[in-house]
């Protein structure tokens, strides 16, 4: 990593921004259209309108947090956002991913650890982050994905719900797939996909009953690395959505204790290539090893052993599974 990238990386970690820059980019496109509106602003507006209501409310809260910051901190966040916006698309995506992962890592710290981090001057925070990460790795694999990232869930659905939708998707004709992808709103895409799947006899095995989820939540509560992070969904205003978020964490923990059967890398790569855009986004922000692990879970829910993803027909080598 060259010195410029290393310095920016350190600034991202040390600054502790909570995705405020991302909020600013999106909210900038929320007003009425004007003749001088840029293509980027139009794209941001359309992206904001396509978001589920819960996500828009979350962004509104982040904007309020930003407005409550001192002027100097607001200027620092805007400066950081400007610098990231000047990077290439690939580098920009990498730094947004770093911001997301850092934010969720901080949420998993104890109250004392967060207090120590927040009280330190920006120039000292990287040293504290390094020490805390070293403590997490003690006695384990230094290259392993942090535990909190393995139970973290930013997707709107349970793994078996995604698997069921993919089973429906793979059975659609090219025309029907194009119809779904042409829908602008992600929520409306899922609604249409559910309509198309009505009556289809697609079963997804492996669903946990409530008693199993409760037992897993008790285990997570007893784990000092995860207990604080489990409390994060409780900040949601909607009790129903809060409960669903907690139970998705329990399901993710289940697959740590009961990993699926391994998948041949070639098959897994072909499965990934066949995924529609609306399902791939939830893997993009994850480290490579964690993305492969979660992709394997979805693969095995769609193709439970001894089944495997069918080989493409010779006449259509890039075809999705049928």
Present the secondary structure layout.
Blueprint (H helix, E strand, L loop, with lengths): L2 H13 L4 H8 L11 H12 L2 H15 L3 H15 L3 H19 L3 H9 L2 H16 L9 H5 L7 H13 L2 H8 L4 H11 L13 H12 L5 H4 L8 H19 L7 H10 L2 H8 L3 H15 L20
Helix pairs in contact: 1-8, 2-4, 7-8, 10-18, 13-15
Q: What would you note in describing this structure?
A:
The protein has 322 residues and is an all-alpha fold. The protein has two domains: 105 residues, no CATH class; 153 residues, no CATH class. The chain contains 18 helices and no strands. Helix 1 packs across helix 8, helix 2 crosses helix 4 and helix 10 packs across helix 18. It is globular. The N and C termini lie far apart (43 Å). The N terminus and C terminus are likely disordered.
Short description:
The chain is 66% helix and 0% strand. The protein has 18 helices and no strands.
List its salient traits.
single chain, 322 residues, mainly alpha, 2 domains, 66% helix, disordered N terminus
SSE run: HHHHHHHHHHHHHHHHHH
**Rg (C-alpha, Å):** 21 Å
Question: How would a crystallographer describe the biggest sheet?
Answer: none
By DSSP (H or I, 4+ residues per run), the number of helices equals 18
State the end-to-end CA separation.
Answer: 43 Å
Kindly give the count of domains: 2
């Amino acid at each position: 990593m060259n010195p410029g990238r290393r310095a920016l990386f350190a600034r991202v970690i040390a600054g502790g921004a909570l995705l405020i820059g991302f909020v600013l980019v999106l909210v900038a496109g929320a007003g009425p259209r004007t003749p001088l509106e840029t293509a980027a602003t139009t794209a941001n507006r359309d992206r904001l309108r396509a978001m589920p209501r819960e996500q828009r409310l979350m962004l509104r809260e982040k904007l309020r947090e930003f407005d409550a910051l001192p002027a100097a901190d607001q200027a620092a966040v805007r400066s950081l956002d400007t610098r990231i916006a000047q990077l290439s698309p690939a580098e920009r995506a990498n730094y947004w991913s770093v911001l997301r992962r850092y934010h969720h890592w901080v949420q998993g710290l104890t109250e004392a650890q967060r207090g120590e981090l927040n009280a330190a001057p920006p120039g000292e925070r990287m040293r504290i982050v390094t020490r805390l990460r070293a403590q997490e790795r003690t006695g384990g694999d230094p290259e392993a994905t942090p535990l909190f990232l393995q139970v973290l869930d930013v997707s709107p659905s349970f793994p078996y719900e995604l698997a069921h939708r993919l089973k429906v998707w793979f059975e659609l004709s090219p025309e029907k797939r194009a119809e779904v992808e042409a829908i602008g709103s992600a929520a409306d895409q899922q609604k249409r996909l559910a309509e198309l799947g009505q009556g289809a006899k697609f079963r997804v095995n492996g669903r946990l009953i409530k008693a199993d989820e409760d037992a897993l939540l008790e285990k997570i509560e007893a784990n000092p690395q995860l207990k604080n992070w489990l409390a994060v969904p409780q900040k949601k205003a909607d009790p129903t959505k809060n409960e669903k978020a907690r139970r998705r964490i329990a399901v993710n923990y289940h697959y740590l204790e009961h990993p699926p059967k391994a998948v041949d890398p070639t098959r897994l790569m072909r499965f990934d290539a066949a995924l529609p855009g609306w399902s791939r986004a939830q893997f993009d922000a994850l480290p490579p090893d964690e993305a492969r692990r979660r992709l394997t879970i979805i693969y095995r829910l769609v193709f439970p052993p001894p089944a495997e993803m069918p080989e493409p027909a010779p006449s259509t080598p890039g075809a999705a599974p049928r």
